[in-house]
Amino acid sequence: ETLDKGLEKSKTDFFSKLGKAVAGKSKVDDEVLDDLEDVLVSSDVGVATTVKIINRIEDRVARDKYLGTDELNKILREEIAALLAETNSGEGTEFYVPTDKKPYVIMVVGVNGVGKTTTIGKLAYQFKKEGKKVVLGAADTFRAAAIDQLQVWADRVDVPIVKQKMGSDPASVAFDSVQSAVKQDADVVIIDTAGRLHNKVNLMNELSKVKRVMQKVVDNSPHEVLLVLDGSTGQNAFEQAKQFTAATEVTSLAVTKLDGTAKGGVVIGISDQFKIPVKYIGVGEGMEDLQVFNKYEFVDSFFK
Ligand code: GDP
Question: What is the per-residue pLDDT for 2?
Fold first, then answer.
């Protein structure tokens, strides 16, 4: 139900455009396909993924000889689901936190403003609800607001936070956080990091350093590197995914702010373009507004 609510704007927008594209036409022809291409691109599915989808539908038109526009919705749903089946994007699996690997270390990366802190807070809430002990680490030391915001979430969810003053070494905060999680026998530690993209080499160095110090405390950590992307920024989200995956090994994605945007198609494009599972989607500002992403459910709720 929340997913439906979260996707409402994207759906309304998409179907009104699609309706215009097929208005007065009974059969899917080249003109309809051209218009469909425009609709998908303007819904932020991304050009590369749009081309793949159009090709699949063209193949189907060629195979079946005739395709009625009244079937387009159903066909789109099938072809997009089939396309996403070829990616390793989420099938409804949340972070697996093994009980014998304590603490499970999650490093969160992303540009400022995308909803990184909020996503960390929501994740902490989910873990806590499952009875897990959570520690937060405020290693985005570049902005005072980032530390304050994480503190607000720590208070709200009622979990401990490790922080230092603004401007301190992020790696040192990360080290303290993981160490504190070990001492407290925590199940999960979630580390916020600074999301400055102005300089790729700096970003790379900073993230590598943060990772290195974590590994001094817990072998093979971080166990997850979660990149948070703002779904309402459309093509910027693609660009950020490109830059972060070039700077560090990203293991999973969270796409936020899908409520209140008409750009929900971005999730389809991101799932297809990056061979990294979308694990979570943000559909609101509240504690409970984080959903485990399931690509099939997503396509279903979009096209039903
Ligand atoms: P950060 O700078 O990346 O840490 O971003 P924040 O977590 O502070 O979020 C920036 C703004 O986006 C805040 O006003 C959040 O409430 C809002 N936000 C975050 N996630 C979502 C979401 O899924 N939906 C909506 N509507 N707002 C969100």
Answer: 66
Do the interacting molecules here have an ipTM over 0.90?
yes
- For residue 63, the model assigns a pLDDT of 93
How far, in Å, is the centroid of ligand 1 from the Cα of 115? 4
pLDDT of 115 reads: 96
Residues 277 and 271: their CA atoms lie apart, in Å, by 7
* DSSP structural state of residue 93: -
Question: Six-digit token pair at 187?
Answer: 């199940």
Q: 3-state DSSP call for residue 91?
A: strand
Q: What is the pLDDT of residue 17?
A: 87
CA-nearest residue for atom 19, ligand 1, is: 115
Alpha-carbon 26 to chain mean position: 37
Q: Is 221 in the pocket of ligand 1 (CB under 6 A)?
A: no
pLDDT at residue 223, as a whole number: 96
In 71-108, which positions are buried (b, 16+ CB within 10 angstroms) versus exposed (e)?
Answer: ebeebbbbbbeebbeebebbeeebbebeeeebbbbbbb
Pull the structure tokens for residue 272. Answer: 């297809």
Query: ∠ CA(298), CA(287), CA(228), 5° rounding?
Result: 60
Ligand 1 atom nearest 111 alpha carbon: 3
Mean pLDDT by 10 residues, the chain (304 residues): 75 86 90 93 91 95 91 90 84 84 94 95 97 96 92 98 95 97 97 80 88 95 96 91 92 92 86 90 94 87 78
CA pseudo-torsion sign 196, 197, 203, 204 = positive
**Is the CB of 240 inside a 6 Å radius of any atom of ligand 1?**
no
Give the predicted TM-score (pTM) of the model. 0.93
Q: Which of 244, 285, 289 to mutate to test the pocket of ligand 1 (most atoms within 8 A of CB)?
A: 285
77 vs 291: CA distance, rounded Å? 21
CB burial string 121-149: b at 16+ within 10 A, e below: bbbbbbbbeeebbbbbbbbbbbeeebbeb
